[in-house]
Write a structure and sequence with these properties.
11 helices, 0% strand
């Protein structure tokens, strides 16, 4: 922790946990037939479990409930995160895992990096070089040279929406974290789980139909949902800790390397091949981290 600094160390931890959470979540959505309603149910169950865990921990520690602007930053961020996560899960589950993540990973790093200039000042030449190198690494890690593994137009549009939404969420979570890591996370989960439920009910009321279904009683599906929820919660808490320990852009850019974890898990468990470009991107991330943390 002292070598990297808490700001960078927590950012990298968030990337590792989010990579695993996205992998598990996208598998759960794939088991639902890559449907909108399936993705909404995965987000609702996962975030409701996350809310219960985090709120319980915050209550046991005696942390005061957030109020005012801080609370609304968390809830508003959660609303955006819910919609973005559904879009991203569907994008991941409809094709080669990671192709669409390139766009999403870049956008969710760029938005808070721009905001950080106004909050924390210019990042400096070395750190800015690290950001540019990290952006290149994220693109190489999450992209594919194989045209048969490229994302569809629909998946790419969903990834763009998801990436912009994640970037806004990253900023909102920083302000929500002023009330503490646990309640900042809990307030975001209130917004995300409520939004997922509301959209699901709206689709039911208007008679929205699509192919595929999800059975939440299925053991493997539930395990993927719960596993993804725990990893995602850990990633969010780590990211919140990173923003409280230092610059927003450092936390966001390092956390945005999360596609590497998704790609490695897909290669290991689903036997998806990694390209030379992806492997080189992972190596390129190492000097990027070094420059950012100098």
């Amino acid at each position: 922790m002292t070598f990297l600094g808490a700001n960078a160390a927590f950012g990298l931890l968030a990337a590792a946990l989010w990579g695993g959470g996205d992998f598990a979540g996208s598998i759960a959505v794939r088991r639902a037939g890559s449907t909108i309603r399936g993705a909404l149910l995965v987000v609702f169950i996962g975030h409701l479990v996350s809310l219960a865990v985090v709120a319980t921990l915050a209550t046991l520690q005696g942390n005061p409930l957030p109020t005012g602007t801080t609370l609304w930053w968390g809830i508003g961020g959660g609303v955006i995160a819910s919609v973005s996560l559904v879009a991203f899960y569907i994008a991941l589950s409809t094709g080669h895992m990671g192709s669409a993540a390139a766009v999403s990973g870049l956008l969710c790093a760029i938005v808070p990096a721009i905001v950080s200039v106004f909050l924390d000042g210019a990042p400096g030449v070395l750190r800015l070089s690290g950001f540019l190198l990290a952006g290149t690494a994220i693109w190489m890690i999450a992209s594919s040279t194989d045209p048969t593994h490229s994302a569809s137009r629909q998946a790419m549009v969903l990834s763009v929406l998801g990436g912009i939404g994640f970037g806004i969420y990253f900023v909102a979570l920083k302000f929500a974290g002023q009330s503490g890591v646990l309640w900042g996370m809990a307030s975001a989960r209130i917004g995300s789980s409520t939004t997922a439920l509301a959209i699901s009910l709206l689709l039911l009321l208007v008679g929205f139909r699509e192919k595929g279904h999800i059975d939440p009683r299925h053991t493997k599906t539930l395990l993927f949902i719960l596993g993804g929820s725990l990893l995602d919660t850990g990633g969010n808490l780590s990211y919140l800790a990173a923003t409280r320990a230092g610059r927003l852009d450092v936390a966001a850019v390092l956390a945005s390397i999360y596609p590497a974890g998704t790609i490695l898990l897909a290669a290991w468990l689903l036997h998806e091949k990694t390209s030379r470009r992806q492997r080189f991107g992972m190596l390129l991330a190492l000097p990027a981290v070094a420059l950012i943390t100098i």
